[in-house]
TrEMBL record:
Chief subcellular location: plastid
PANTHER family to which the protein is assigned, alphabetical: PLASTID-LIPID-ASSOCIATED PROTEIN 4, CHLOROPLASTIC-RELATED (PTHR31906)
Keyword Iron: no
Keyword Transmembrane: no
A GO CC term assigned to this protein in UniProt: plastid
Pfam short name (any one): PAP_fibrillin
Location within or outside the cell: Plastid
Signal peptide region: none
Name this polypeptide is given: Plastid lipid-associated protein/fibrillin conserved domain-containing protein
Keywords: Plastid
Domain spans labelled Plastid lipid-associated protein/fibrillin conserved: 92-324
Length: 331
């Protein structure tokens, strides 16, 4: 059941453009020094990766980004597994241009080379314990490259552009995936869906693998509209009861409400405030039952850490998607 509350907290409409740079990594900046970035070979491999990502971003700027919209039809999810589509595996990058595709290949080759130089043997050490703040994964991580379609955004798509980051709490064993939407091309104000947050619980299965269970989804809205059928149905039920008319278990009011499906939703004034919607994600048992009856294999939710140091994290999901993430300045 949806839980609705008014959220005065959050960014004001005057601040929303700053979201575009809040999570922007400094790829051209110096490679951090420290115990996890000490060897010249490792520093060179990281520079090669950052240069490859810079070139990939340049090709996207010139030729365009992969345009992804919601669901299977929008290319976000695989039609068979319903897992996030892999843009490297399905040719999504090459669909933009050969240069974008080759640039993405170069990033993945740099990832393979860097994995061999991973300085962190136990990425999940202390995870989910009182000493979890010492876990190498603990903290925030901003996306700078990914093959996952559900984390790929473009101002020219219906979803609009967005910044994506991941927050790992090594003490509680919780993970937050956060998407800050920036709006579509030529947008003059904040998008209706301003932020999307997914809370997951995580369990360390090995020194490099975290298993994930989706728990809660939160959506922060700048605009809220109520579909008229949803609004009219309870009113019609009450009217039928008051007039003593047979409602046939709610069937007649439901049919009458259905005529309003194509009528535009009724906007509710928020007076500059934000509204957050929170709803639970179906648990593992229910998900297993649903996939059993659909005769499809349930996607495994986990990621393997390929490389991790003080500033850079690279991991591969159970569906084979690659994420390259960097520590933001705010930590």
């Amino acid at each position: 059941m949806l839980a609705l509350w008014a959220a005065a907290a959050g960014l004001s409409s005057a601040r929303w453009p700053q979201l575009r740079t809040a999570c922007a990594p400094l790829l051209a900046g110096p490679v951090m020094s420290g115990p996890c970035a000490a060897t010249p070979a490792r520093q060179q491999a990281k520079r090669v990766l950052f240069d490859a990502i810079n070139k990939f971003d340049g090709m996207k700027e010139r030729d365009g980004a992969v345009s992804i919209d919601f669901g299977v039809k929008g290319g976000e999810l695989d039609k068979d597994s319903r897992a996030p589509s892999n843009l490297a595996a399905n040719g999504g990058f090459y669909a933009v241009s050969d240069d974008v595709g080759r640039a993405a290949d170069s990033v993945l080759q740099a990832v393979d080379a860097l994995e061999l130089l991973n300085p962190t043997a136990d990425a999940t050490q202390f995870f989910g314990t009182r000493e979890g703040a010492l876990c190498p994964l603990h903290g925030s991580w901003c996306n700078i490259f990914t093959t996952a379609a559900d984390a790929t955004f473009s101002a020219k798509s219906k979803r609009g552009d967005a910044t994506v980051y991941n927050r790992v709490d090594g003490v509680t064993g919780r993970v937050w995936n956060v998407i800050n939407f920036l709006g579509t091309e030529n947008a003059t104000g904040p998008p209706a869906l301003e932020q999307f947050r997914v809370q997951l619980s995580a369990t360390a299965l090995s020194p490099k693998r975290l298993e994930l269970v989706f728990r809660v989804v939160q959506a922060r809205l700048t605009k809220l509209s109520v579909p008229l059928p949803l609004l009219c149905f309870p009113l019609l039920i009450a009217a039928f009861r008051r007039l003593g008319l047979p409602a046939l278990g709610g069937v007649l009011p439901l049919l009458l409400s259905a005529f309003l499906v194509k009528v535009p939703a009724l906007p509710l004034p928020l007076f500059g405030r934000r509204v957050s919607l929170t709803f639970p994600v179906p648990g593992p048992a229910l998900t297993s039952v649903l996939f059993f009856f659909s005769r499809k294999e349930r996607p495994r939710a986990y990621f393997d850490v390929l490389y991790l140091d003080d500033e850079l994290r690279v991991h591969r999901t159970g569906q084979g998607n690659i994420f390259v993430q960097r520590k933001p300045l705010w930590g």
